[in-house]
């Protein structure tokens, strides 16, 4: 299930799709389409992970400091294993950066705010 702070870019998918598989396919398509215009950051985690909430605060800070806006979405792998598998996510947390329909970076495991910023910033 998507995080309650899902980017508004993806919100219409939830109200228009009628089944879970259609939602997954539509989300992936929208992420790829959005990545043609700019950076898309996908954070794969699980709600039972304590580091998820800390990671969210890091991402909020990065989003506020970013030189250009970017799409940000949180995916709970327990609810969306198929999407995680399609993008090669095998460890939590994993942050996938999409740009121009390609995975430009994959950040695996927990990391500091400073390290996250250093890895994401070059992609703006």
Description of the structure:
InterPro entries: Thioredoxin-like_sf, Thioredoxin_domain. It holds the Pfam family Thioredoxin. The chain has 124 residues and is of the alpha+beta class. It has a single domain (11-123), classed as Glutaredoxin, CATH 3.40.30.10. It contains five helices and four strands, in the order H-H-E-H-E-H-E-E-H. The chain has helices spanning 11-16, 20-35, 51-65, 81-86, 113-120; strands at residues 40-45, 71-76, 94-99, 102-108. 27% of the residues are buried. Residues 1-18 have low confidence and may be disordered.
Characteristic key phrases:
4-stranded mixed beta sheet, Glutaredoxin, alpha+beta, disordered N terminus, 124 residues
In short:
41% of the residues lie in helices and 20% in strands.
Task: Please tell me the CATH architecture by its name.
Answer: 3-Layer(aba) Sandwich
Percentage beta strand = 15-25%
Q: Report on the biggest sheet.
A: 4 strands, mixed
Low-confidence stretches: 1-18
How much is the radius of gyration in Å?
A: 13 Å
The first-level CATH class name: Alpha Beta
Number of contiguous helices: 5
Biggest sheet: strands side by side, in what order?
2-1-3-4
CATH fold-level name: Glutaredoxin
Structural class: alpha+beta
Question: How would you describe the shape?
Answer: globular
Helical content (DSSP H or I, runs of 4+): 40-55%
CATH superfamily: Glutaredoxin
**SS elements, strand count:** 4
How far apart lie the N and C ends?
Answer: 28 Å
Strand and helix order:
HHEHEHEEH
Mean pLDDT: 83
């Amino acid at each position: 299930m998507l995080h309650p702070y899902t980017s508004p870019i993806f919100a219409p998918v939830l109200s228009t799709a009628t089944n879970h598989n259609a939602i997954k396919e539509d989300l992936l398509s929208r992420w790829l389409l959005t990545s043609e215009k700019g950076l898309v950051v996908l954070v794969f985690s699980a709600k039972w992970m304590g580091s998820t909430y800390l990671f969210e605060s890091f991402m909020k800070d990065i989003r506020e400091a970013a030189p250009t806006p970017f799409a940000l979405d949180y995916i709970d792998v327990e609810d969306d294993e198929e999407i995680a598998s399609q993008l090669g996510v095998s460890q939590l947390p994993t942050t996938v950066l999409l740009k121009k329909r390609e995975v430009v970076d994959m950040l695996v495991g927990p990391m500091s705010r400073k390290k996250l910023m250093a890895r994401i910033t070059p992609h703006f």
